[in-house]
Specification:
Elements: E1 2-3, H1 11-23, E2 27-32, H2 35-48, E3 52-55, E4 60-61, E5 67-71, H3 72-81, H4 85-88, E6 89-94, H5 106-114, E7 121-126, H6 132-143, E8 150-151, E9 159-165, E10 172-175, H7 183-200, H8 222-232, E11 238-241, H9 245-253, H10 263-277, H11 282-285, H12 288-298, E12 301-304, H13 310-321, E13 327-330, E14 344-347, E15 351-353, E16 358-360, H14 363-370, E17 382-388, H15 394-402, H16 416-424, H17 430-436, H18 438-463, H19 469-493, H20 496-499, E18 508-510, E19 529-531, E20 536-539, E21 545-548
Parallel strand pairs: 1-7, 1-8, 2-5, 2-6, 3-5, 6-7, 9-17, 11-13, 11-14, 12-13, 14-17
Antiparallel strand pairs: 3-4, 9-10, 15-16, 18-19, 20-21
């Protein structure tokens, strides 16, 4: 297992494993979390070795090759189907294995590792994770083979972290390349944000101020000013991370006044673009995302997210690698493993929606994305810029910018799909999968600590001396009696003959529900009142009139 920062050279280990396999005429599988990374690694490996194939959800090239590059989901599917490839595999390389902590897709890695052929060997490539040894111990236990760890916190290109306050005109260095957090500089940045926030309240509470493009240059958006300043200071190429596909495209369109390429670069871009688009049908060439992209690309501006056509994403990746795209608006997936560093990385937001709520970026997410800044051997240092449009505590910023990487914790969960796949497979054994999962391994490891806590709590309980214990029992009995009587009164008050006169449209009603039972409706804890819109009388079996639907 190799655990290191971006650009630290983890791929060299994968290349060595592939070379060894091909030398011994063995088959090797390389898995990655996303199609874009699979495409890039396929191109990279194809230059080194000739016998390389690619299998993703979009394309299949040479599926019988000795070295197969594929997404982890494809590898799991092959395992469930009992593919012939399984019997021939000598090495399996899992790139970006820290993705195993992903809440939705992380379980795929656990299934793939547990079900991997017993005779195969493994290479795990990961970003820095504090509990790498725990993961290695799990692999050693499941596959009965040692798992060696190569771990380093060294970053080849040091980073400088700046804050750009919404409405401001300058950058504030908050973490220098030695890793020192400058709280005074951060406070100055927040102070510069105050007047901007006040004026922004008139524009949708400040949420859209930095994305608004006015007609005059004096009212340029923060994004436009930011990119303009980066180009003037020669901090390009720059990647601007946004957490919404729509926002990526919207921000790119705001760069209409900006032209970052020379005429010869524009000619090269047009040639590369149309040679790739020749693969599309005439109808597909007329799609808005195809026709709108070329004018942007010719100006040195690109967009990269999962909603684009695969061929379009591949062209943008190639153009960015060749230095023909100076400014790229991308979603978080661009930070996963792709070997496409830039000099500068900009975060257009400090919050992201995780499926349940908007929250601050975690330190692990920040480390992953900021790792794209700084090209090894080209830049002396990388530059990260955080665009802040709302107040945040220095402690929150410090945790985000200087916090440790997220631990690699299991996100294993049972699903109907998993159980059906296990039942369909000849060697399927759901119980074995559960027993050998990383989730179960971590749970077993936590048992001694939990048992220790139980003993401490029991000891604390036994050491308590309660005076007049009999009175305490009497008090508890009275509480139970009070609860029972309260329920009886409640039932009488809400009986149809008593409550019906009060059920008038427009009357306010206080909403209460028992905490012992889950409510069958969603209610904010601050909203405890409702209003009667209407009600109807329903005859019960005893012919009594009861109100309903109020």
């Amino acid at each position: 297992m190799v655990s290191a920062h971006t650009s630290a050279g983890k791929t060299v280990v994968a290349l060595y494993a592939i070379a060894m396999s091909l030398r011994n005429q063995q088959r090797v599988i390389y898995t990655s979390p996303i199609k874009a990374l699979s495409n890039q690694k396929y191109r990279e490996f194809k230059e080194e070795f000739s016998d390389v194939g690619l299998m993703t959800g979009d394309v299949t090239i040479e599926p019988n090759a000795s070295c197969l590059v594929m997404t982890t989901e494809i590898w799991r599917s092959m395992q469930y189907k009992g593919s012939e490839v399984m019997r021939e595999v000598a090495w399996v390389i899992f790139d970006e294995v820290h993705y195993m902590r992903d809440r939705e897709r992380g379980v795929v890695w656990e299934e793939s590792i547990v079900m991997a052929p017993k005779n195969s060997r493994f290479v795990f490539l990961s970003a820095t994770v504090p509990n790498a040894k725990e993961f290695a111990d799990w692999v050693a236990k499941v596959h009965k083979q040692p798992c060696h760890i190569v771990y380093t916190d060294y970053r080849p290109t040091p980073l400088q972290h700046y804050v750009f306050p919404s409405g401001g005109d300058g950058l504030y260095l908050v973490v220098d390349e030695k890793g020192k957090f400058r709280e005074d500089s951060f406070q100055k940045a927040l102070n510069a944000l105050v007047p901007a926030s006040d004026s922004a309240k008139k524009k949708e509470n400040g949420k859209r101020q930095k994305f608004t493009m006015a007609g005059t240059s004096s009212e340029e958006s923060d994004i436009f000013k930011m990119v303009k300043m980066i180009i003037q200071r020669q901090y390009d190429p720059v990647i601007l991370f946004s957490f919404s596909k729509r926002e990526c495209e919207f921000l790119a369109m705001q760069m209409a006044k900006m032209d970052l390429n020379e005429d010869d670069e524009k000619a090269n871009i047009e040639t590369i673009f149309w040679s790739a688009m020749d693969m599309l049908s005439d109808d597909d060439k007329k799609l808005p995302q195809v026709s709108n992209m070329l004018p942007l690309l010719k100006r040195g501006i690109g967009v990269h997210h999962s909603g684009l056509l695969p061929i379009l994403k591949e062209v943008i990746e190639i153009l960015f690698q060749e230095g023909l795209i100076k400014c790229l608006f991308a979603t978080e997936t661009f930070s996963i493993g792709l070997n496409m560093p830039a000099k500068t990385v900009v975060f257009t937001n400090v919050r992201k929606f995780d499926g349940d709520r908007f929250r601050w970026l975690s330190s692990g997410e920040y480390i992953q994305m900021s790792g794209r800044a700084g090209r090894r051997g080209i830049d002396l240092r990388g530059i990260c810029i955080l665009m802040v449009d709302e107040k945040m505590e220095p402690s929150t910023a410090k945790m985000m910018l200087k916090g440790s990487a997220d631990s690699l914790n299991s996100a294993f969960h049972l699903s109907y799909n998993m159980l059906l796949n296990q039942m369909r497979s000849e060697d399927g054994d759901p119980e074995k999968l559960l027993r050998h999962s990383f989730y179960q391994f971590q749970a077993d490891r936590s048992l001694p600590d939990l048992e220790k806590q139980i003993k401490e709590l029991e000891s604390e309980r036994n050491s308590m001396v309660i005076e007049e214990a009999e009175s305490l029992k009497d008090y508890y009995d009275l509480l139970q009696q009070h609860r029972s009587l309260k329920k009886d009164v409640h039932d009488i008050v809400l009986s149809p003959k008593h409550v019906l006169p009060f059920l008038q449209p427009g009357r306010l009603v206080r909403i209460e529900y028992s905490t012992d039972e889950p409510a069958n409706f969603s209610i904010d804890e601050n909203v405890t009142w409702g209003i009667i819109i209407n009600f109807e009388k329903v005859k019960s079996h005893g012919e009594a009139v009861i109100p309903a639907h109020c």
